[in-house]
Structure formats: C-alpha cells, structure tokens
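To: structure desk
From: M.T.
Subject: fold request, one chain
Message: Could you run this one when you get a chance? Sequence is below, nothing fancy, just the single chain.
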Amino acid sequence: MKSVFLKMISALLLLLALPQFALAVRIKDIAAFDGVRDNQLIGYGLVVGLNGTGDSDQTKFPVQSLVNTLERMGITINRADITVKNVAAVMVTAVLPPFAKQGNSIDVLVSSVGDSKSLAGGTLLMTPLKGADSQVYAVAQGGVLTNSFSYGGQAASVQKNHPTAGRVPGGALVERELPNVLAGRNHLRLNLHQPDFTTAARVEAVINNRFKSAVASLTDPGSVQLTIPEEYQGKPVEFVAALERLEVTPDVMARVVLNERTGTIVMGENVRISTVAVSHGNLTLYVKETPQVSQPAPFSSTGDTKVVPRTTVKVTEEKKSLAVLQQGANIGDVVRALNALGVTPRDLIGIMQAIKAAGALNAELVVI
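Reply: Done. Structure tokens follow.
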C-alpha cells in the first residue's frame, strides 16, 4: 500500500514539474448571453396510490386537497368521512430551460410537505407549475421514482436513500413558451461566469479580431457589449453560433481553497509565495492510568485496602527540519518542499494558514 502511495505522489510531482501551458476554452463555456437562462417553476400537488405510507390524519391539508380534487370531478363528499393513508401532499419543482417549446417534456422533483413516510410507488396527479409571475408554464403528472425503500416495525426499521422525495422523468409538459430574447435585437450582452478584467479584455479582443470590426466593447469586467455586424443583421442565431465557438484563454486569480472538514486542498496555477522557511512536527503525548490495589494479607487483623495510582506518561516529538521555499516558487515547488516534510493534507491546511499569516502567500486563502 505504501509503495502505491509513493508512486502516486511521484506521478503527481512529475506532472507538476512539466511546463504549464494555459489552455484556451470556448466562449460558450465561460459566458452566457443576457436573458438566455433557466427559469424555476413550482407547484402544489397530490401523490396517490401509496401503500399506507401517506400523510396521517394529523396533516389536515392533504385531505382538504383530495376533497377539492374530487369536487372538481363532480364527486361531492363530506370531508369528515375521509380517512386515507395512501395520499401525500407534495411540492413539485422543475427548471424550464430557455427556448423550450410547447409540448417539450421536462423532469420534475417531487418532495413531501407532510408526514408521509414514503412516496415510493405513488402517482403524481396533474399539477400546474407556475413561474415567479404566477403564470402556468408547465403541467406535471406521472409515476414517482424514488430509488429507495423504507420498512420497519415498532422496534426496528431499515431505509435506503431518501423515500420522501423523488423524480418524475419527463413528467411535465411545457404549456407556455418564454419570449425569444434574441429576436429583433441589434445589441446583445455577454455575461462572464467569473467576472475578471483580463478575461473580459481577452474576450473583446478575440471577438473584434474575428469579425474585423469593433463588434465588442467593455463597460465592466463582468460583461461584454455586442453589436451585431451588418452581415448578421436579422440573423442573431447565426451570429451567436459563430461567436460562441471562439476560443479564449481565461485568467484566474491566485487562490488556495481549504476544506477543513474533509482535508481537501486546491491550489490555483498562479499561486506564488515569498521566501519563507517552514518547519512542521507532531507532538504525541501518551498518558496511561493503571491504578494498583494494595490490601492486607488474608486473615490479617490490621491494615486497610488502598488504591495506589500508577500513571505512565510518554512524550514523542517527531524530528523535522526546516524547508526553505524560495521567492516566486510555483505550486510545483511548494508541493515538493512540503512533501519533503512528510506532511498530510490536514497538516498542509495549518501550514498554508501559517504561511498566509506570515505574509508570504501571494494568493487569496479561502477556507470552506
């Protein structure tokens, strides 16, 4: 096992020792056009057909919802006469993608809002899904898939995954289309996923070089203003298709992300440090209590039974030497030097925080 770990470390160091080349990416992977976005939908519905795992009588609104549903179907019934356990009230959520057309199907997520024990095997009744403007954009219905189960008795139970939430694949049909944000426009705006001055300037230069005119202009580091060229007037889709295939080399901030819960460390390519000496060692303290009982000899007329404490204390401190990291060292140099100290990922978190506190880490330190 140790040899495999050493081979993995050697391979990682070999990759870090290779020259670093910044790779270009497509504009469509680092930016999106203003207005071309997903929209969230939500609705309230009922899941029926459950095998006694629905909401209990303590949850009042599922029964009232069932009565209302039956009345819309022409069946009049007294609410007090209904006692069922195979119905569950749920919230239904979905994401409406841009340019979705009427009749397209989208997946929906169904989540119990009452005290239902499981939605497995249930069927979602027709549920209107509304947007933030209270307009109905889709209608959901179908069988609920939970990929889970939950069984048990009074003293024990067994459960796999999460039985009170599930999905209806392709369970919603789009009934209302979103407005076409590209039609009839001569100006567009390209929003970067990660705002950055250098990246925005590079995007502007690449676009202007491709179309041989001042098509793109900058007003802030998060967006690029676009004017549709003459040859693409009335053809915004063709213009967008030609633009989003262009490749740009994005620039990123020097950043070190530390996750103290999992011991994960991620370092960006541009992380640099100033000259600093690092020493790391572990102090192990071993304390063991072994009390001894002292008592008089059998049939003795004098003496008392006493408990005599016995404590063993052992202190072990690992011998570690200083590792000097030279100014301007890149991520490969940092990893090599710290591996020479034999540090673990959790030790490395403390070391990076100490280097930042010493003012030698020329990068943003993010702890999550």
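Reply (cont.): The two ends are 30 Å apart (CA to CA). Let me know if you need anything else for the meeting.
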